[in-house]
Amino acid sequence: MKTTGMLVAAAVLLALTGVLYWSDRHPAKDSTTSASSTVEAPAPKILTLKDSDISKIDIKKKGADPLELTKDAAGRWQIAAPKPLSADQDAVTSLVSSVASLNSDRLVDDKPSDLKQYGLTEPALEVDISTKDKPQKIVLGDDTPTGSATFAMLSGDPRVFTVASYTKSSLDKSSNDLRDKRLLTVDFDKVSQIELIAKKQDMTFAREKDTWQILKPKPLRADNSQVEELSRKLKDAKMDVSSSAPDEKKAAAAFASATPVATAKLTGTSGTQELQVRKAKDDYYAKSTAVAGIYKVPSDLGSGLDKSLDDFRNKKLFDFGFTDVNELEMHDGAKSYFLTKGGQDWWIDGKKMDPISVETLVDKVRELSASKFVDNGFTTPVLDLIVTSHDGKQIEKIQIAKSGDNYIAKRENEAALYQLDASAVTELQKSAADIKPLAEPKPTVPPTKK
Q1: Which residue from 78, 58, 52, 75 is spatially nearest to 137, judged by alpha carbons?
Q2: Are 285 and 305 within 8 A, CB to CB?
Q3: Number of neighbours of residue 206 by Cβ within 10 angstroms
Q4: Rounded Cα gap, residues 246 and 118, in angstroms
Q5: For residue 125, what are the β-bridge partners?
Q6: What domains lie within the chain, and their CATH numbers?
Q7: How much is the pLDDT for 245?
Q8: What does the alpha-carbon distance between residue 200 and residue 202 come to, in Å, rounded to a whole number?
Q9: Which of 66, 118, 329, 401 is the most exposed place for a label (fewest CB within 10 A)?
Q10: Closest CA to 57 of 47, 65, 68, 48
Q11: Residue 93 parent element (H or E)
Q12: What is the reported pLDDT for 33?
């Protein structure tokens, strides 16, 4: 217990010593200042510039190579030093905004007699800004004792300020922080075609407006959401720039001996870019035609590209989705149903039908989906379905044949065959049989007079 008490006392003494030391180096303001004048004035701005006026930024940090950022003729930022690299435009724009509108936390000293006490004689960080008017220089020194702020000043201005730690972090950047880490730099909004070679299959997807279709190995309906997910994976593919030079050599060696997972080629208005992904044990590595080098990449990129043709095919039998159906025709052996919609009402042969029972049937038709794709097995149709939607502009015709314990479906003018679970067809037939006329409202009986 005595030892514990002595340790606590020693810690308190050490803290007090630090406070006294700090007080000696940073004398308190005149204690005779009146109470009314102790109201703290708003923290002054250190620098106010227009982002568009800044043409160059140099960042110098102790123990690191100077970082030089310049604008090209098109107004895009580039990294010029320590070696030329493409810049992440969003990251550099954020840095420029921080520099252009630099706020202080507070004014520490109007006319400091000694900058060394703030760490400003040999600053930890220096930011040189070139503008069309005159150059500016921001220097950052030591952190404050609490660690929540940093001492700073503007070259040519004698005042010493503090800036928030997050402000320092926004300026303290390296080339790895600001370089473009994308492995594919194509404009994905303008990509018209994606070729994917994976699982020994060569697949090509073509986009018209916002809709994807499969062109290769043969024309097929594509699952739009799956192709969009592929596009997103490629767009998000980024290099790991945290590795050292030996790690880069290791990545190159691993890539050379690794197993190919997938190769993706993207074609847009600016040309074609290619990305190769390989797997070595549990790690994935990538090589791109858009940037130099070989990089380790996240496993979700590898798994996102390691897909087969069936993963991208549209398994839904109908394309009308959640668009309102105008007409639904169904032939099930000797039974036939011809439903038309007028406004919010469904009709059969001039008779208004119960809307809940009809919408249940429509839902079952909408949900028809392949459990898998097959190459044969379609024989004599036992069910015919015709759906008209999009105000009569889209007509889809489906035939369904029995095949063993399951069913095989075929869309009009398509060679593809869709295997359906027997339960899906059974539920469809039951929903059709359950359609009923709308119940007549019960007549209102007038109240009897007492």
Answers
A1: 58
A2: no
A3: 18
A4: 39
A5: 61, 140
A6: 43-178 (2.60.40), 188-312 (no CATH), 325-433 (no CATH)
A7: 62
A8: 7
A9: 66
A10: 68
A11: helix 89-100
A12: 37
* Interaxial angle between packed helices 355-366 and 422-433, expressed in degrees from 0 to 180 and rounded to the nearest 10: 160
Q: For residues 416 and 126, what is the distance between their CA atoms, to the nearest angstrom?
A: 65
- pLDDT < 50 regions, the chain: 1-4, 7-8, 12-13, 15-38
**Given CA atoms 60, 64, 66, 70 in this order, what sign does their dihedral have?**
negative
What is the residue-wise DSSP string for 342-370?
A: ETTEEEETTEEE-HHHHHHHHHHHHT-B-
* Closest listed residue to residue 412, CA positions, set 378, 361, 372, 449: 378
pLDDT confidence of residue 131: 94
Write out the two tokens for 433. Answer: 């049989």
Cβ within 8 Å of residue 25, ≥6 positions away: 117
Query: What does the pLDDT look like over 178-218, one tens digit per residue?
Result: 999 999 999 999 999 999 999 999 999 999 988 999 999 99
Beta-sheet pairing, 325-332 with 294-297: unpaired
What pTM, to 2 d.p., does this model score?
0.78
Scanning 182-341, the segments in alpha helix (DSSP H) are 224-235, 245-257, 299-305, 309-312
Determine the pLDDT at residue 246. Answer: 65
What per-residue confidence (pLDDT) applies to 35? Answer: 39
| 61 contacts 124 by C-beta, under 8 angstroms | yes
CB 230 within 8 A of CB 204: no
State residue 442's pLDDT score: 73
**DSSP designation for 98:** H
CB neighbourhood size of 170 (10 A) = 16
Residue 231, both tokens:
């596009």
* Other Cβ atoms within 10 Å of 222 Cβ, number: 21
